[in-house]
Design goal:
The protein starts with a helix and ends with a helix. It has 238 residues and is mostly helical. It has helices spanning 2-6, 14-40, 45-73, 76-83, 88-113, 120-147, 156-169, 180-186, 192-199, 205-237. Helix 3 packs parallel to helix 6, helix 3 runs antiparallel to helix 7 (156-169) and helix 3 runs antiparallel to helix 9 (192-199). 78% of the residues lie in helices and 0% in strands.
């Protein structure tokens, strides 16, 4: 596990840790809350808390994708798919590393918001949903890597998902209030019910779980289909 953490670029030194775990989340919180403030005329703690939780999911997504791309760059993926492509230990280690990174970000920033005015109710709801949000992020990280495994830019789908995650989750405006075309796109991702859980008294988390399962199956199928072509391609490169 320690080896996995050491390979994550945002954990390389205290500066990158500060930027990823504190500075960027705080900037996102302020940006979204200030935008909301123009319309509501009050500081919306629901937006702040939801922003932290979704940032945590995004970090888990980034971590999972980065770990797998690093292995591919080091040709470790050849050894994995040629000997134990379905190794439970290998995939568990990647997933747990990504989950821990996201959860740590969420806990740090939610706890920091508490003495500043975040209510205990919102704090507890956010902490409750935080692990599930990071699980969703980890699944999207795996699938994004799998879909771009043979692409010239292996970060393509990971960067795409990270760039739109705040929009499709409805952090600022609930997805149910989106234009129909954007609502349909958002419903294709599992994060909107996570935000609904924080903001509303009712939610359908099972829908998000099914959605995430669909993404996971897509990633698994893509991985299985590409095992032989990737192995043959990389062997011929030697």
């Amino acid at each position: 596990m320690a080896t996995q953490f050491s390979s994550l670029s945002f954990l390389s030194n205290w500066r990158t840790r500060f930027v990823y775990f504190l500075l960027l989340p705080i900037i996102n919180i302020l940006l979204l809350v200030l935008i909301d403030l123009q319309y509501s005329n009050s500081f919306n703690w629901y937006v702040a808390a939801a922003s932290v939780v979704i940032d945590s999911a995004a970090l888990s997504l980034q971590a999972m994708s980065q770990l797998l791309i690093t292995d591919a760059n080091l040709k470790i993926d050849i050894e994995v798919i040629s000997k134990r492509p379905y190794s439970f230990y290998y995939w568990k280690t990647k997933a747990m590393t990504s989950l821990i990174a996201g959860i740590v970000l969420g806990v740090i920033n939610l706890v920091l918001l508490w003495p500043l005015g975040l209510s205990l109710t919102i704090l507890l709801k956010s902490l409750t949903i935080l692990p599930l949000a990071c699980i969703f992020g980890t699944i999207l990280g795996f699938t994004s890597w799998s879909l771009s495994w043979q692409m010239s830019n292996p970060y393509f789908f990971a960067n795409l998902f990270i760039s739109i995650i705040t929009i499709v989750s409805g952090v600022l405006v609930l997805v149910s209030q989106y234009p129909k075309w954007l609502m349909i796109i958002s419903y294709g991702f599992p994060f909107y019910e996570v935000v609904n859980f924080i903001k509303l008294n009712h939610t359908s988390l099972w829908m998000s779980c099914l959605n995430a399962l669909g993404w996971l199956l897509m990633g698994i199928v893509s991985y299985i289909v590409q095992i032989k072509p990737v192995l043959n391609n990389k062997i011929h490169q030697y």
